[in-house]
Amino acid sequence: MPVIVVDPERPDPSVIRAAAARIVGGELVAFPTETVYGLGAAALNPGAVAKIYAAKGRPSYNPLIVHVLSPEAAQALVTEWPPLAAELTDQFWPGPLTIVLGKRPLVPDLVTAGLPSVAVRAPAHPVARALLEAAGVPIAAPSANRFQAISPTSAAHVARSLGPDAALILDAGPTRVGIESTVVDLSGAQPALLRLGGLALAELEAVTGPLARPAAPDKAAPRSSPGLVGRHYAPSGELRVVEAGQIEAAVVGAGPVGLISFAEQAPAGVDHHLSMPADPREYGRLLYAALHTLDELGCARILVEAVPNEGAWAAIRDRLARSAVRA
């Protein structure tokens, strides 16, 4: 599992060409996007896509996002490109927005969990874009970690989670958004929000108007988007979200105990404390790294101070709620 350090803004073309050759050859490459690190394979190669599911231990009902360079590249994979798709991509691509549309037959069913729709995104990270350009093929890439585990925002996180299952890891340092993309479904009669993420809902709905919120799918039913499994983004130990006034009482119990809070100091009984910023964008950028740190320190329990119940924090609340679901 080679790890190659690359400049996050100007990656070495020879390194990118070698990584792209691995993608075209049916191998897996872990690479940075602005959201989290992805585990990439040639999206139109079913055998390569199957390697993603095997490496992650990912169930087949959980679809993958297909990464492309441009709206034009996305249009080659979908059956239609409605005006709203054009408006959204004009405003938010490249960036942390994924769009779900009806798929063309060339997209393997394994990519889409057998559904007639496909999720597409144009990432903004220079390394991801260079890899897409050099490969010349769309790249299917979920987060580069074991299924249900904490998403990776650094190459070290990828190596710790996947071990030798990534043929190559491109290390461009920490990601700048830190949580996955927002996913909107345009394949039905009414636009729907499938996953909260790196693009704020207020910004999205300023373009789309109010989005529908589909009911959660049955446990083993195919998902229209990744990120819809009940337990997700979870550390090895128990995670619990607690209000600020309840932290001291919640500390009592088995340890080691980790705490993520807004306070500078931790109450007695906390073994490892990480203080987080009050800005939601900065908090989102650092959240997974904080969870990885406490997980690596062997915390049997991780307490997280509840974040504000405000729109700007909605994606973070979603991630924490799924992280807290018991296995």
Automatic annotation (TrEMBL):
GO terms assigned for molecular function: ATP binding; double-stranded RNA binding; L-threonylcarbamoyladenylate synthase; tRNA binding
Main localisation: cytoplasm
Documented EC number(s): 2.7.7.87
Any one annotated GO CC term: cytoplasm
Alphabetic keyword roster: ATP-binding, Cytoplasm, Nucleotide-binding, Nucleotidyltransferase, Transferase, tRNA processing
Reactions mediated catalytically: L-threonine + hydrogencarbonate + ATP = L-threonylcarbamoyladenylate + diphosphate + H2O
Record-annotated YrdC-like domain positions: 13-199
Protein name listed in UniProt: Threonylcarbamoyl-AMP synthase
The organism of origin for this protein: Enhygromyxa salina
